[in-house]
Amino acid sequence: MKLIKLALTSSLLTTSLAYAKPPEPELGKRWVINNAYSDEFNGNSLDKRKWLDHHRTWKGRPPAMFDPSTVSVQNGNMQITNKMLEKPNKKFTISGGAVQSIGQTAYHGFYESRFKASRINMSTTFWLSNRNVPFEGKNHLGQDCERDGWSMELDIVEAVGGVIDKAFGANFRQGMQYNTHVWYSGCEKGSRSRFSKGANVAEGDGTQAFNNKLPKGEEVWQNFNTYAAWWKDENEVDFYLNDGFAGRIQVDTSLLEKPYSRPMSMQLLTETYDWGRPLPTPEQLADNSINTSYYDWVRSYYYVDVDKDAVQQLERVGKADDIFVESATVKTTKLVRDTLQFTYLYETDEDVTALIELTKDSQSIYSQTVKLKAGYGHLADQIKLTKAMDFDNSQLTIHLLSNSQQKIASSKPVKVSVNVK
């Protein structure tokens, strides 16, 4: 598996090796990789089907300018190496980097990235956003004109490994800072408003953060950590840090009732902030031991019915990436007269066959096969025998079989007993 390989070969890793995956799916649901917004960065250049090495509409926030020369793919990571700009350009003196998705269709689903921040006062970020479009009709502010427009921004994480001279600076070094923004360009020329909620006290309202801190003593520049968001619907986003629930945001509805209702593009970039001072020095920007942000991977998932296909916007090329740990787990069992009802979870990178088997005294007394679609799914099934007593002291096991019918994973056997009074 990829995580095992990284643990053995990467000198950049120390801790935070927890296996990353979306939350447990609801019964009847499945998580499946969204190819257009997922990348393991295992090549030697950006995948041009998926990524730009710049931002379509934004040069950067002075003094840092987005510079394609800072972006590289090597050693299993997408790297952004911040530096001094070779030729200062008006207000711009620093080179940061921006990797933006070609696609602009990221919508409700799960988005996660595993990265290690630089140790300078520039951010390492992972977020979604879209462009300003005309606002149709009257909004909650009571405005209705031809000029007004709106856009959305979902900041999954903004990490800063340097020491910011603000009281809240430690938050960006020691945990996960996330926000939701709804931007509004009003009827008056030049007016722009932001309606925000989130853990980031610099740009949000500083609320709704629960378990968004790294273990005591750890900082974002030391190790790789996994940052994720489940964009659930038009009004709600859940956030996760290293697979742990980190907070929930009910998106601000000051402008409209269902604000998170448009697809977005994805951004992985480094930048300077107006409130992030002091700025990195030329010496820090020349120090390759602290000036680089390392992105191990980015993964995105559709949430679909367990037996339905996800319509991919970008088809997979070659063998499936090693994302899921092939496994099956029996979740619940319930004996109802002569029928055993059960639910189970499974994970697989490829379509497989599940062999559902009931054994007794080491002998198989029942078996059936079910086709499972690739992903992380949760489903229900049942076994019917002649009489309830036939189940007594039997064991239920679910095996995953490859296309060649070889067992690739098996659940822990679950004992079935008949309660005879």
From TrEMBL:
Protein's organism: Paraglaciecola aquimarina
Domain (GH16) ranges: 17-306
UniProt-recorded name of the protein: GH16 domain-containing protein
Signal peptide bounds: 1-20
Domain of life, source organism: Bacteria
Family to which this protein belongs: Belongs to the glycosyl hydrolase 16 family.
Organism placement in taxonomy: Bacteria, Pseudomonadati, Pseudomonadota, Gammaproteobacteria, Alteromonadales
InterPro entries noted in UniProt: Beta-glucanase-like (IPR000757), ConA-like_dom_sf (IPR013320)
UniProt keyword annotations, A-Z: Signal
SUPFAM superfamilies: Concanavalin A-like lectins/glucanases
PROSITE patterns (UniProt xref): GH16_2
